[in-house]
Amino acid sequence: MLKKLRLVLSLCLLLLVLAVPAVAQENGLPQQIELPDGFTISVPANWTQQADTSLGGTLLEGTRATARVFTPAALAAITEIDASAPLADILVILYRDFAVERARESQIEALTLGDHPAASYRYSSGAEEGLFIVVDFGAGAYGLFEYVAASGLLDEQLQLAKSIATTFAENIVEVDPKTGLPQAVPAGAATPITTAGGAACLVSTTTEGTAALHVGPGENRAIVSFLPPTGVYTVTGRFVLEDGSEWFQLNKDEIPSAAVANEVWLARALVDEQGDCDAVANASEPPIIPNSNIPPLEPSSEQGESVAETTVPVEGGLLPTSGSWTLTFAPTTPVSCLDTETVHIESSQLWDTTPFVARLITAPDGSTFVYGANTFTRSAPSTYSGSFTFEGGANTQVRFDVISGSEMLGQVVYNETVNGRPCSATGTLYVHRN
């Protein structure tokens, strides 16, 4: 299995070494700038602010880029927006008004900034490249953020651009009853606007073993099961992490296999949606509970091969049941080098993310198991570890935590020294018995 991993990671790490330190010096965003109508935005310490007298927005200037931002009221003063139109269509209209050309719909990206939906369009115009972002603050209030860099320099600044845009999108907005205009309010003074009366949010998946159910929002939370591909399930809350990933809390009573957990969460990107999922209310993040406090899943009678005998041995914790198993990667992988910030890269750019199917054979005493052509040794109760060394000395360590006789959560760590700087990528693996 590990021999199938693509060694493109060294190239990605090299790019991090070359590009991230320059951005990381600015990416702390220590300077908070006050915008009209109570809004704020955070930028690097060496950026300056001035009014954009040509259009009425606020112009922000850095050493390698500039940004322009319009609060909802400032944007409404210069253009009329149809709040009933899809967000992508609103971006097309605004970009046409500002750039006097049409954005390509196929290149518009839907994303979430802060707690708000947004649409982003990357463009190239002569000697400049830019990121054009429209933020939906709710209640018909839209903000605009544009980041412009010299041609060829935008790639290395994308993280910085989105980080600045996120600080703008984190403003909480409500309508001033006196003026009828949207304004920002201090955090804690109001709740984000949601659409009232929307259809219930339901989620589903068509592939078994791909939508992991966690005890809280985040890949670092323990997995208790996987969303069954046989029904639709009700979303009761949502939470946005600092990395921008959005997580749904589900009604655990609808999922018997997850009954052992107090709460059940999954990444929004992993499921299909029905209803008004953008209107789901924000939920509180539950406390982190150590894996050892989570009881194991009861074995299923469908798993066969003496599941009851091999799932919970007297000593050594849980054992994976011998049989055919499938391994898949989490959608993103955190990557970092010494003295650089951690960035999240699509796992498909680093690894061969094709689901890996092979037979797993557990030793009778539970001391080892063989998965494909790789042997893993029990290093702690319910935990197995192994390593693989690539040509040239780069190594990968793999750890599997057994959740039940039919499910494991894995972690693969790839280390390499690039230009004298140690770098590492840590991928999350979901493994289940077929």
Q: What's the short version?
A:
By secondary structure, the chain is mainly β. The chain has five helices and 28 strands.
Describe the structure.
The protein is mainly β and 434 residues long. It has an 8-stranded antiparallel β-barrel with strand order 19-22-23-24-25-26-27-28. 12% of the residues lie in helices and 40% in strands. It folds into 3 domains: 156 residues, no CATH class; 151 residues, Protein Transport Mog1p, Chain A; 86 residues, SH3 type barrels (Roll). The protein has 5 helices and 28 strands.
* Proportion in helices: 10-25%
Poorly predicted runs of 5 or more residues: 1-27, 187-197, 289-314, 389-394
Compute the number of strand runs.
Answer: 28
Give the CA-CA distance, first to last residue.
17 Å
Numbering strands along the chain, what is their spatial order in the largest sheet?
19-22-23-24-25-26-27-28
Count up the helices: 5
Structure classification = mainly beta
Share of residues in strands: 35-45%
Mean pLDDT: 75
Q: How can the largest sheet be summarized?
A: 8 strands, antiparallel, barrel
Radius of gyration: 24 Å
Shape: globular
> How many structural domains in the coordinates?
3
Descriptors for this entry?
434 residues; mainly beta; Protein Transport Mog1p, Chain A; SH3 type barrels; eight-stranded antiparallel β-barrel; seven-stranded antiparallel beta sheet; globular; disordered N terminus
Please specify the SSE layout and strand pairing.
Elements: H1 9-24, E1 31-34, E2 40-43, E3 48-51, E4 58-61, E5 65-70, H2 72-78, H3 87-99, E6 108-113, E7 116-125, E8 128-138, E9 141-150, H4 158-169, E10 172-175, E11 182-185, E12 202-204, E13 212-214, E14 223-226, E15 233-240, E16 246-250, E17 264-267, E18 272-274, H5 307-311, E19 323-329, E20 332-337, E21 343-346, E22 356-362, E23 368-371, E24 374-380, E25 383-389, E26 395-404, E27 407-418, E28 421-433
